[in-house]
Amino acid sequence: MRIVLVGPPGAGKGTQAVxxxxxxxxxxxxxxxxxRANISQQTELGKLAKSYMDAGNLVPDEVTIAMxxxxxxxxxxxxxxxxxxxxxxxxxxxxxxxxxxxxxIKVDAVxxxxxxxxxxxxxxxxxxxxxxxPSHVFHVTYSPPKKEGVCDICxxxxxxxxxxxxxxxxKRLEVYHTQTEPIIDxxxxxxxxxxxxxxxxxxxxxxRALEALKREKAEQ
Length: 220
Prior knowledge:
Elements: E1 2-6, H1 13-24, E2 28-30, H2 31-40, H3 44-54, H4 61-72, E3 81-84, H5 90-103, E4 109-114, H6 117-125, E5 127-130, E6 137-139, E7 158-159, H7 166-180, H8 182-188, E8 193-197, H9 202-219
Parallel strand pairs: 1-3, 1-4, 2-3, 4-8
Antiparallel strand pairs: 5-6, 5-7
Helix pairs in contact: 1-9, 2-3, 2-4, 3-4, 4-5, 6-7
């Protein structure tokens, strides 16, 4: 299957992407990994992306799309792939459709991980990291340390990242609603969107997603 994974920050996309890709035996293609790989390997696209990033500018859609195209053309993606973090806006979704048409293939399903906004804020703003390396992660509600502010594992100081503050999380949600959420409506017109709740244990969410994708495939 060729799947696009969408959902707000804190919906658990990264966790579910890895699990679903493994279960479905398809590669997990994330925007972050694409950028890191191209930059570390000093590809032409990587150098171009880095030039924008070093200047403090957003990497243009066409560069991101070119990276995704190159990755989707790798042999391990012939039988399908799971896109995580791409497309990020409607113009990228349109470009992806055009790209796939030239290859004679299409997106099979768009998996939308749904989670209430206040739960997103609670999940991210409650996260605490250990300052020591490797950094261990705790959560003030879901996995609190035995002693507040102290890592259970190494005794290091726990802290909240600046971009995990409630104010920053709400700004990230605004960006998601403005830029990324419209792709759900875009794909709904094609009858491709499968929405599931991203609440509950990780294993249950994975199973929920697999069953929803199976139903979607059977209906096509």
